[in-house]
Design a protein that fits this description.
alpha+beta; globular; binds protoporphyrin IX containing FE
């Protein structure tokens, strides 16, 4: 699958035709006006930025400009998104919103830029190629088996968001650094969560909540940061002294050499990259799976079809990488879930040089917002966009999708490094769980989203889990 067309697009023809248009959008840029509207918009943004973006799209259209709390312009149309993420990508690096992650991730791939980022991406990319990620299936299966044992013994309803979070942490622990201990991965996850909550609070305080203030929150975050670094460093030292050429990503990073200088990665680099991969790689997949179970419980016909495919293909055995092509419906369900609930609902970029996008000027200092949560519901590209319909991703229809209208993993050069890993993990876990269990919601009330940097649930997803 081409990185830039991702799902769908039948190659350069559609893509180039899209670039060739000379439409002028300069008189179609709208947004809140006057202080009352701006304050109203700001309050809604803090409450739920994904829903606010969507309502602004419905109210103002494809390009929305806001002035508060910062000068920002949101592009919801695929061709404009392509300009930012691909055609002129060097003009749109990650924005200052990512700075709050720097104390946690150092110079890891998620936040680095320029040559450093390019070197890291080159080094890590082979680990995550489509052909390479099948090797993780046995670890994924092993982790699912552990969850089965927990669920089989559980009495009463289960917090599915919590189960999926722990499950994907175990998987990332096994795949990234061959962790023998599930507890170790959970501990890392807990420390990361404390640090992230703290970083989000700092970001929202717009510079007022300084990290040197002697508050309980600051102390707690410092402690979590130290414990996180100590635990990951122990793992790195263990992997170095084991001196075996493992299949896990950390062992490969230890052996990797820069093609130009021949240098190996330092402990600090290994620490930053390991933390970045765990952070980027577990919550996103866990949320995609949780939203899947939520939607399946509300659409029993789709749930039945998924169960039928998983039972027919797998019977009583565990999946292997060879089964993946035989699970097309499972894949369709996973993709359609990420259309309605993209785990990363929006990202921001900054403008380096003045630029013109279809007649619309953007200036240095302005933020550019790309919101998959909105573009995935754009009625020009998605018929009946609020309907959960996995058929949209049927293999024979997928080529009809408009390039850049579907971007749960983003697109362009800063697209998700772990896309293939996440797809394998999602399909294997979904098939295993759907074959064995039926999950029922305790409440018929729809669940609202609570976007942080990822698209979380407003309240825990409590479900009754029954053996089929
Ligand atoms: C369903 C699961 C996943 C989704 C929806 C997802 C989505 C994304 C998105 C939207 C970005 C771009 C973020 C931005 O620019 O702010 C991203 C970046 C990234 N993701 Fe994922 N991701 C998933 C799973 C994973 C996994 C499993 C891994 C690795 C084990 C991973 C590793 C990364 C890394 C390293 C980056 C930064 C890439 C760079 O900047 O070069 N992701 N992901």
């Amino acid at each position: 699958m081409s990185q830039d067309l991702a799902i769908g697009g039948n190659g350069a023809r559609v893509d180039d035709a899209q670039s060739a248009s000379t439409e002028d959008w300069s008189n179609r840029v709208f947004g809140p006006r006057g202080w009352r509207q701006h304050i109203w918009h700001l309050a809604r943004m803090f409450d739920n930025y994904a829903e606010t973006d969507l309502s602004m799209f419905h109210r103002y259209g494809d390009i929305v400009r806001v002035r508060v709390p910062a000068h920002a312009i949101a592009f919801f149309r695929p061709r404009h998104i392509k300009h930012v993420l691909r055609s002129n990508v060097l003009n749109y690096p990650k924005s200052y919103h990512y700075d709050s992650l720097r104390p946690l991730l150092g110079d890891g791939i998620f936040v680095s830029e320029g040559d450093l980022w390019a070197r890291q991406r080159r080094l890590l990319a082979p680990e995550f190629r489509e052909k390479a990620v099948g090797r993780f299936v046995p670890s994924i299966v092993e982790c699912a088996d552990k969850l089965f044992r927990e669920w089989d013994e559980a009495r009463g309803p289960i917090d599915v968001t919590d189960s999926m979070m722990r499950l994907t942490l175990w998987v990332v622990g096994r795949a990234m650094f061959r962790s023998e201990s599930f507890h170790e991965a959970e501990h890392i996850g807990h420390c990361l969560e404390v640090c992230l909550t703290h970083a989000t609070r700092q970001m929202l305080s717009m510079g007022l909540y300084k990290s040197w203030l002697p508050t309980h929150g600051n102390r707690k975050a410092k402690r979590a940061e130290r414990e996180l670094d100590d635990t990951v460093m122990q793992i790195i030292h263990r992997a170095r002294s084991a001196n075996v050429s493992g299949q896990d990503v950390l062992s490969r990073m230890i052996q990797a050499r820069d093609p130009e200088s021949g240098a190996a990665m330092s402990d600090k680099q290994l620490l930053d990259e390991t933390k970045s991969l765990i952070l980027a790689g577990h919550e996103t997949t866990s949320l995609a799976l949780s939203w899947c179970f939520y939607l399946l419980a509300r659409h029993p016909d789709i749930d039945d079809r998924l169960h039928e495919e998983a039972s027919r293909v797998l019977g009583d055995r565990n999946p292997t990488a060879a089964d993946l092509p035989s699970l097309p419906y499972t894949r369709m369900v996973f993709l359609e879930t990420m259309r309605l609930y993209p785990p990363v609902p929006g990202v921001s970029r900054k403008v380096v040089q003045p630029d013109v996008i279809d007649g619309v000027r953007v200036e240095p200092g302005e933020l550019v917002v790309i919101a998959p949560y909105v573009t995935h519901r754009h009625p020009e590209y998605w018929v009946d966009p609020e309907r959960f319909d996995p058929e949209r991703f049927a293999p024979e229809r997928v080529n009809d999708l408009e390039p850049y209208s579907y971007l749960p993993f983003l697109l362009g050069r800063r697209a998700c490094l772990g896309e293939h890993f996440a797809m394998v993990e999602g399909i294997v876990l979904l098939a295993m769980l759907a074959r064995r269990y039926k999950l029922t919601l305790l409440s018929s009330q729809p669940c609202r989203t609570r976007p942080i940097s990822t698209l979380r649930f407003e309240r825990p997803l409590m479900m009754k889990v029954s053996r089929r």
